[in-house]
Specification:
Blueprint: E1 3-17, E2 21-28, E3 32-38, E4 57-64, E5 70-79, H1 88-104, H2 112-127, H3 134-147, E6 166-170, E7 175-178, E8 186-187, H4 190-201, H5 212-229
Parallel strand pairs: 3-5
Antiparallel strand pairs: 1-2, 1-4, 2-3, 4-5, 6-7, 6-8
Length: 238
């Protein structure tokens, strides 16, 4: 039934619409990804001000009518992450984080863990610009896969269960594979394997750096996992 609902949300994307409106792609803790229109948001005297821009964490009142779009009737800033917007690398990292969430999680698929993970990523990029590199982006994506129930097998061969001679990674198999099962896999160096294990097990603020070769292999492993099991292609990490 039509009515109003209150929720927190992160603005994933904000699109100009018509002469003065905005269409927002939002991620909410209990409603998942939703779309809403903010009427008059681009007008000079809009009550929303500039708070409907991407990466804002907001407290919203949304009206659910008969159409596909919710309507924003009130918005209050929870966190604006202002320092994030002062650095290109942090801004780019935030954009890629929001894009990964939008691609991996469909509309109406609530996942509170994803909402809090995204908020933590934005907080980290705002507070620690040195963390805005490729290693951080890959660790965030790996944790998204975990939240989606798609985390790759890293402790034993995904095909036969052998824990020795783990030489490759197969997206189709769902994780690392041993020498006997590596026909459809690509080589995965020990450093790349260690990075994936650390990125999965440690907080985002403690993810270690790795060589460019190891990060390329880790990104391929994450990308193939998303493509084979979530049927989505993630943007390349910066």
């Amino acid at each position: 039934m039509p009515g109003s609902l209150k929720t927190e949300a992160v603005v994933l994307r904000s699109i100009r619409y018509g002469e003065g409106d905005r269409v927002l792609h939002l991620y909410t803790p209990h409603g998942g990804r939703v779309a809403a229109i903010a009427k008059g948001a681009r007008k000079a005297r809009s009550r929303f001000g500039g708070r409907l821009e991407p990466f804002f964490r907001l407290r919203l009142v949304l009206y659910e009518g008969r159409g596909d779009l919710l309507t924003v009737t009130a918005a209050e800033t929870v966190a604006a992450y202002p320092r994030l917007r002062e650095r290109h690398a942090c801004l780019d990292g935030a954009a890629r984080a929001c894009d990964a969430v939008a691609r991996l999680f469909e509309a109406g698929d609530p996942n509170p863990a994803v909402f809090h993970l995204l908020c933590h990523q934005l907080e980290l990029l705002d507070a620690e610009p040195a963390r805005a590199g490729r290693a951080n982006q890959l660790a965030f994506r790996l944790k998204l896969l975990l939240a989606a129930g798609l985390v790759p097998q890293l402790q034993a061969c995904a095909s036969c269960g052998d824990r020795e001679h783990l030489l490759g990674f197969s997206g189709a198999a769902g994780g690392v594979v041993c020498g006997a099962c590596e026909a459809s896999a690509f080589p995965l160096d020990q450093e790349a394997h260690d990075f994936l294990v650390a990125a999965l097990g440690r907080p985002l603020a403690e993810v270690p750096e790795a060589s460019d070769r190891a990060l390329r292999q880790a990104e391929r492993a994450i990308g193939e996992t998303a493509e084979h099991h979530a049927h989505v292609q993630l943007r390349p990490a910066a």
